[in-house]
Amino acid sequence: MVLNFIKSGYEKVKEALSKTSSFLGGRLKTLFGRGLDEDTLEEIERVLYEADLGVQTVQELVNSLGEYYKKNPGAKEEDYFNLIRKTLISIFQNDNSSLKEAESGPTVLLVVGVNGSGKTTLIAKLAQHLKNQNKNILIGAGDTFRAAAVDQLSHWAEKIGCDIVKASPFSDPAAVAFDSIDAAIARKKDLVFIDTAGRLQNKTHLMQELEKIEKTIRKKIPEAPHETLLVIDANTGQNGVEQAKLFLKYVKVSGLVLTKLDGSSKGGVVVSIRRNLNIPVKFIGVGEGVDDLKPFEPEEFIDSLLAK
């Protein structure tokens, strides 16, 4: 079983990526108009790097463009754009935004990522979407390290109209996860979200904590968590890749969420992170509103990225 999300128009995504596309699409259009000599290819390479597409992808694109030009010296601007578009879309082959749903009992969604990446807001937005689909939801406020995170989730839970399980500051997060799932089972909830801390200044403690939370969840529901979503702030650029690799050493991530794309000129980092981690992108955040969390649709995302 899967949880599906309504796919809405991508105008908001295009608007959110306008900082990247005005640089990337606009510059490429100008450079392709010159014809692809060696100097132009070097400039194209620089533009692609600055868009944060990542080393592997940039090298593949530059090599492909050079080879294509040799075989098709009369190629036009749109031919080059189509080549880039096809290459980028292939990186997301078979990705979809569906979330796995438990066959019986509550579906457990574990949310991880560094503090400030947007975990708490993601939970609120997803909970609202799923509440609109008549799902009964419970939220576990497992980031006991930050009182602000618990307060924020409490506010959202009240606003959305869903239950929340929380504890006093610095309580054991695994205990919160245990109590949350216990409550979800007793109250016959459809879904339970588990928030987590993300303080990288003490990596060992954080990661041991995440491992403990996972083990605790499995004690209650052996096949859970059904989804583990890693939230990454798009503004961090390539640092987001390194953050993600750290989390992957300790938790089994099933999907990526890239937030704050509306404030970033580094929209290409979505491509880099997807390629480096080989984990599907589930959602992207393109604004502050509840409706600004969008299921990830590769073709429309790449078209927005390359808009001229």
From TrEMBL:
Catalytic reaction list: GTP + H2O = GDP + phosphate + H(+)
Question: What Pfam families does the annotation carry?
Answer: SRP54, SRP54_N
Q: EC number(s) per UniProt? A: 3.6.5.4
One annotated GO biological process: SRP-dependent cotranslational protein targeting to membrane
What Gene Ontology molecular-function terms does this entry list?
GTP binding; GTPase activity; signal recognition particle binding
Q: How does the UniProt record describe the way this protein sits in the membrane?
A: Peripheral membrane protein
Q: Which GO terms describe its cellular component?
A: cytoplasm; plasma membrane
Provide the binding site for GTP: 113-120, 195-199, 259-262
Q: Which InterPro entries match?
A: AAA+_ATPase (IPR003593), P-loop_NTPase (IPR027417), Signal_recog_particl_SRP54_hlx (IPR013822), SR_rcpt_FtsY (IPR004390), SRP/SRP_N (IPR036225), SRP54_GTPase_dom (IPR000897), SRP54_N_sf (IPR042101)
Compartment annotation:
Cell membrane; Cytoplasm
What range does the record give for the signal peptide?
none
Q: What is the predominant subcellular site recorded for this chain?
A: membrane
Tell me the ranges covered by the SRP54-type proteins GTP-binding domain, including all copies. 280-293
Which keywords accompany this UniProt record? Cell cycle, Cell division, Cell membrane, Cytoplasm, GTP-binding, Hydrolase, Membrane, Nucleotide-binding, Receptor
Entry similarity comment:
Belongs to the GTP-binding SRP family. FtsY subfamily.
Question: What's its job?
Answer: Involved in targeting and insertion of nascent membrane proteins into the cytoplasmic membrane. Acts as a receptor for the complex formed by the signal recognition particle (SRP) and the ribosome-nascent chain (RNC).
Report the NCBIfam families cross-referenced here: ftsY
Q: How does it assemble?
A: Part of the signal recognition particle protein translocation system, which is composed of SRP and FtsY.
Official protein name in the record? Signal recognition particle receptor FtsY
Say which species the protein is native to.
Candidatus Criblamydia sequanensis CRIB-18
